[in-house]
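Ticket opened by: R.M.
Priority: normal
Category: complex prediction / small molecule

The reporter submitted a protein together with zinc ion and asked that the result be attached to this ticket for the collaborator who will pick it up next week. Submitted input follows.
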Amino acid sequence: MKENKKILAKRKTLESIAEAAKNVFPNEFIALLGSKNKNSIIDELVVTPATFGDSFSSVYLDLLPFDKSIVGSVHSHPSDNNWPSSADKRFFKKTGKIHLIICLPFNISSIRAFDAEGKEVEIEVVE
Ligand SMILES: [Zn+2]
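Result attached by the on-call engineer:
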């Protein structure tokens, strides 16, 4: 059987990510992803103290507001590459099960999703 991993995300939330990434460019945008519903649909962006930092790998985990609604993270790459670096993958393992990376030109189709192991997963956009 082929494993068909997929995450669900609200279009509005993905659009907010794109908007935020544009606003902080050329710095990296960093936030946590939240889900306030049983189906684990990503519908919330949790802005962290590190949101306007310039390196994803420098996020201080003890500053982050972890609670049950946090499902993972999102950050931007100020380039046309939306694949995780090795530092990103180490961070993913510690920070939830769903991780998004957005790259230029910062729109919904330039967002890629990964699991905690850094493997790509499909994004299903929910209205
Ligand atoms: Zn990265």
